[in-house]
């Protein structure tokens, strides 16, 4: 049996009853985190064009509600809007070893599919676990650095397969139809890293398009449309076409031992994951040594080689971000706001800070370095090292192996709830927040996911 058909068999066999309690709990934890970023993402400038497009072309009374809006659209378009919104903040979950963001693809598709299928909370949980497992295993097998080198965004490419699997589970497809879903998804897997050139919105589109494509693949497979059942491992398949150093054996290695939802990290900072550990180190040094911005002469930051082109190079560009997207992928900017404001959360990634003379001054003091000492255990660990040199030539350094939010250094449920509330406060009342939190915490007892989706409709939503 080939890899594609084996994935179909394994995913077909995942049921709520077969899942360990900790996997069920983690799936709900990841869902609440996702909902926070997706709901707040409706407020970003890049989300408004998709809402205007849907309102003009696809809005109707019987469709899937798009959370935190008044729109109702067909499931693939609900997934498209959700993915774009959820990926717009750079606060969505991430898997270090695969270097991708699973929720924005998998859960965007799963919620939309669950609504039209009248799925239960238990069915949604099983679909999320299967989608994450597929998407993440493919990301690991590709070799993320090699995939990036070819210009592909792994959330976009691997996400199409994960979204397809999650949707197929909720559509209750059989094993052959699930394999066809994967085959069809493989002809839709796309996403260019060229957005880094000018800070375009297309990175955010990647998440939505992968979710949209996953549902389309599932719907076609249900109607008898076929896809190559060797799409993963074949001569012209995904692993061979999208990476020069993929390892097919890694796709099925330790499948479900544990499930990859247990290896998924949460972001406390609103930026690329390759910046997060360094920001943790900076915040620690500033607090422990009571440093002030004015006292700092130089900041040396060791960046992992796999992320160097994303957040550190070319240095003159990274020290001069021109947009929010640029700032999210600028290590000098992340360092500057951490030093000046004591955090790097959503409100700090603003045009006010991008144009701030104080921020610009600190950014000129930041040097990003490649350091072989932090590469040894990558991608199992995502280390960061920071050295701050003061004007009086004192030196302070900090190192972290696991950024805050990693499974080895996790946010608690209480911290996830605080993050959720902070994000959705401009959109939902405290009572509405309580209803969503309670629904997610008790998801396994929800007979219809539509109950949860309907609580997130915002009737006075404006797309102007």
List keywords for this structure.
single chain, 464 residues, alpha+beta, four-stranded mixed β-sheet, two-stranded antiparallel ribbon
> Strand order of the main beta sheet, please?
4-3-5-6
Task: Give the integer mean of the pLDDT values.
Answer: 96
- The number of distinct helices, counting runs of at least 4 residues, comes to 22
Q: Which structural class do the helices and strands define?
A: alpha+beta
Rg (CA only): 21 Å
Number of DSSP strand runs: 6
Large-scale geometry: globular
The portion of residues assigned to helices is 40-55%
Beta-strand proportion:
5-15%
Quaternary state of this entry equals: single chain
**Uncertain ranges:** none
Major sheet summary line: 4 strands, mixed
Distance between termini? 53 Å
Order of helices and strands: HHHEEHHHHHHHHHHEHHHHHHEEEHHH
Concise description?
The chain is α+β, with helices and mostly antiparallel strands and 464 residues long. The chain has helices at residues 3-12, 21-41, 48-57, 75-86, 102-117, 121-142, 144-149, 154-170, 175-186, 202-222, 238-241, 249-252, 273-288, 305-311, 315-318, 324-328, 331-341, 351-354, 357-363, 413-424, 430-441, 450-454, and strands at 64-65, 72-73, 296-302, 366-369, 384-390, 395-400. The radius of gyration is 21 Å and the shape is globular.
């Amino acid at each position: 049996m080939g890899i594609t058909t084996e994935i179909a068999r394994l995913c077909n066999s995942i049921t709520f009853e077969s899942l360990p309690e900790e996997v069920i709990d983690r799936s709900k934890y990841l869902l609440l985190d996702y909902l926070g970023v997706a709901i707040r993402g409706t407020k970003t400038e890049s989300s408004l064009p998709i809402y205007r497009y849907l309102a003009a072309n696809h809005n109707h009374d019987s469709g899937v509600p798009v959370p935190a809006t008044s729109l109702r659209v067909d499931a693939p378009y609900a997934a498209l809007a959700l993915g774009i919104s959820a990926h717009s903040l750079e606060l969505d979950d991430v898997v270090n070893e695969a270097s991708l963001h699973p929720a924005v693809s998998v859960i965007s598709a799963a919620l939309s599919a669950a609504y039209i299928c009248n799925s239960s909370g238990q069915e949604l949980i099983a679909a999320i676990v299967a989608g994450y497992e597929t998407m993440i295993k493919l990301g690991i097998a590709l070799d993320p650095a090699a995939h990036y080198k070819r210009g592909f965004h792994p959330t976009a490419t691997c996400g199409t397969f994960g979204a397809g699997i999650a949707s197929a589970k909720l559509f209750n497809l059989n094993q052959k139809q699930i394999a066809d879903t994967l085959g069809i998804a493989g002809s839709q897997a796309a996403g260019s890293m060229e957005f880094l050139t000018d800070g375009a919105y297309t990175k955010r589109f990647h998440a939505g398009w992968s979710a949209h494509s996953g549902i389309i693949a599932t719907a076609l497979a249900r109607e008898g449309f076929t896809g190559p059942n060797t799409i993963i491992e074949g001569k012209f398949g995904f692993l061979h076409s999208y990476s020069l150093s993929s390892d097919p054996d890694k796709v099925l290695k330790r499948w479900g031992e544990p499930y990859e939802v247990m290896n998924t990290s949460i972001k406390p900072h609103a930026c690329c994951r390759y910046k997060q550990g360094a920001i943790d180190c900076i915040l620690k040094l500033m607090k422990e040594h009571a440093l002030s911005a004015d006292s700092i002469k130089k900041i040396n930051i060791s960046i992992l080689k796999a992320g160097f082109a994303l957040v550190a190079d070319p240095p003159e560009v990274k020290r001069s971000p021109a947009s929010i997207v640029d700032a999210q992928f600028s290590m000098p900017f992340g360092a500057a706001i951490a030093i000046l404001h004591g955090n790097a959360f959503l409100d700090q990634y603003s045009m006010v800070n991008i144009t701030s003379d104080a921020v610009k001054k600190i950014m000129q003091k930041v040097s990003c370095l490649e350091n072989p000492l932090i590469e040894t255990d990558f991608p199992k660990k995502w280390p960061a090292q920071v050295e701050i040199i003061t004007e009086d030539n004192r030196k302070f350094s900090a190192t972290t192996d696991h950024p805050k939010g990693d499974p080895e250094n996790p946010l608690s449920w209480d911290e996830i709830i605080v993050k959720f509330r902070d994000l959705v406060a401009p959109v939902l009342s405290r009572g509405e927040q309580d209803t969503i939190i309670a629904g997610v915490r008790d998801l396994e007892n929800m007979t219809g996911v539509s109950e949860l989706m309907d609580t997130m409709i915002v009737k006075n939503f404006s797309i102007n």
